[in-house]
């Protein structure tokens, strides 16, 4: 009976973490920035495909965070609860207070490291050296490489997209000039070509936004569900098929977080980082979709925030568009401090949770 109560409580906490992750989901921001989607439409679509992506793509990343990072050891109940509480505090407080996007992946890694470190005070199984630092280094490398790859791939796509536009519109111009010498008619045709091109960009952008939203959800939902996978009750034969259900629960939590709070983050990223048109937004989202989809399917816990912001900056740089450097600086600072802050917070929460467990006679 006690195991079931703990399981329900942990799942509720994981749902809250997923909700918090949804409040920081800015993946639809380029669609709003380019005018392809209204803010309302972006939020609705993002919510729908958060559930789809969580169910289809969340399991590989959850395993890497929940088990591989701690050398396949089983986290204790107080550790799991402490990790989840620390993540909720960091994610919700940041998104509500400032509307700034931070990395959910960094939050869970920081919380796990902090909790494992202080848990060593009561059990020799844990401590600062209980972390598999090869796995941690691999994850950290992904945090660094994914935005770098996202930046250069987005800039490359933008470069070739601009070249394509120039060649396409120039050839159309030549054809019209051969048939008509009337400047007004030529101008009308040229405008029509531009509009047709933008329409194609719009359809393609909508597709890539949906794909990237699903892959981001698959990666982020793992951050909320991963700690729960260590619960003893989930390792029994009667709970073999529970992982898929947990992914759906996490997806629903992310969807609600996006609908109720996450629109603020989308608005900040869409309006206060770099101006975008449909072409530049498409370049950014092609890059983001490729990086996030392949990374998620391969089981790498990536920061969708890092990848998206770097891709948006890349197309802004390639097009010489105005970039709000102050906002970018604030976001970068939030990335740097997320891991240590969440680690310290996770450690502090563990002391409180452990004290409650001891007071209730439940032990460690």
Provide structural commentary:
The two termini are 18 Å apart. The chain has helices spanning 2-23, 29-33, 39-57, 59-66, 77-98, 104-119, 133-179, 183-225, 242-272, 278-297, 304-319, 325-359. The chain has one domain. α1 (2-23) runs antiparallel to α8 (183-225), α3 packs across α8 and α3 runs antiparallel to α9 (242-272). It has twelve helices and no strands. It has 364 residues and is mainly alpha-helical. The protein is elongated, with a radius of gyration of 23 Å.
C-alpha Rg, in Å? Answer: 23 Å
Shape: elongated
Number of strands: 0
Name the beta content range: under 5%
Helix fraction bin: over 70%
Biggest sheet statistics: none
Summarize the helix and strand pattern as letters.
HHHHHHHHHHHH
What structural class is derived from the secondary structure elements? mainly alpha
Tally the helices.
12
- Beginning-to-end CA distance, first to last residue: 18 Å
Number of domains: 1
Mean pLDDT: 81
Query: Which segments are poorly predicted (pLDDT under 50) over 5 or more consecutive residues?
Result: none
State the main characteristics.
364 residues; 78% helix; mainly alpha
Write the layout of secondary structure elements.
Blueprint: H1 2-23, H2 29-33, H3 39-57, H4 59-66, H5 77-98, H6 104-119, H7 133-179, H8 183-225, H9 242-272, H10 278-297, H11 304-319, H12 325-359
Summary, kept brief:
The protein is mostly helical and 364 residues long.
